[in-house]
Design a protein that fits this description.
Length: about 500
Amino acid sequence: MSEKSVYKEINIKKEDKTELWQWSASELVRAIKARKISSREVVESSLARIEQVNPKLNALVEVYGDEALLAADQADQAVHSGKNLGPLHGVPTSIKINSDEKGKATTNGVAAFKENIAAEDAPHVANLRKAGAIFIGRNNSPAFSYRWFTNNDVHGMTFNPWDKSKTPGGSSGGAAAAVAAGMLPIAQGNDIGGSVRYPAYASGISGLRPTAGRVPSQYGPVDQDQPLSVQTMLTQGPLARTVDDLRLALQALSPFDPRDPIHASVPLVGDSLRKPIRVGLLKDVNAAKPAPAVDKALDDAAAKLADAGYVVEEVDLPLFEEAYKLWYLLCMEEFRQMMPLVNEVGDHGMKTAAEHYYAVAEDWWGPSPGLTEYMNGYARRGTLISKLQEFLIKYPILLMPVSAEQAFEQNADITSVENMRRVMAAQWSMMAVPLLGFPALSISTSVENGLPVGVQLLGRRFREDTIFDAAEVLEAHSKVQTPLDPAW
């Protein structure tokens, strides 16, 4: 059966979507389980697309085709033997270079870590494997995964498929570029400061930061003590081209793993919200006014939600300004313990970015905040979480910018302290949301100035289902078409 006839038979809507690498993960897994296509055919199509576009983008820094094809054959055998199949059965994906994947190097973009071969899968990687995903490669990140720009001395720079002079985002920039260009339908990332949501935004796709504790997470070896910010703010999340694929990936990622100290096994779907559902539109928190393209995207999204029956009202939430600045006290002061290692083995980009982060944060917290400020900061964090939870009783969904600007020029964070100040201000929601721990989704909605632009939806804790529903309303009207060929 040809790919084109399969396409017609399973009712894929876009008439020109005839290549398997163009299909969504949801479409692929349904067709694989129905024996209308094979996982081998899917992986072969993905590998061909990788060979075509990855040399231009450098999104995947390691590709293991033979291993992926062997896994695909095993997946096809499981289909024919009638075994129970996972939610991502036979679908290709990639793992970020800061996540442990058994037998692969967890380089995290650092030359000194090139031989850091993982002895076992991290919890989220293990869950993807159990869900039937086919690992096809490793996606790029900046050194130490601590920038919104994907560039390091080990693997080089990843380019944005829309415009190579713009960042694809970071730190999961390789994942975003790979998905946007059709190398994979879905990729794994992680987010402690926007590292899933911002790359999705910059590259024109969608990305989910689940509630802290929803997906079992791990950063580094299981016996390595993790800072409190990593334990409470870091989440693992998927990047994909459709909201349906984000739902599917969250299902795959969520099962319990004892290695995560805060994991909570909470149902993926909760009680229906009282209608009409009120949405708070939050444009600015006295950090950075949204650029015209971003402002327009927010207004358009508000109108689309209103047309769908939501009640959208502009709101003022100054706690977000406090939260984003507080992130730089709690996370960056903990990261200061890593600075000797960064200075020893980090690349120029990471060292300079860290220097600029601290220079800007000094305006808020002084040159050397101490234990008292740190303890008071965590105490204040709890108060801010409570305040937002109270607010979300009336407005269970917030509509806000991902960034106040469209994709930044490459390496904007390291050209000067003033440029970093601008970048940090534009990214206020990237830090505020992790500090507060609520789920948030980035969705691309339109193209302005030749670049994608979109919005962010935030919901109550463990109510990812409610923001999926709202995102699907926006997705139905989105003018962003992916996958796309690199624009050069």
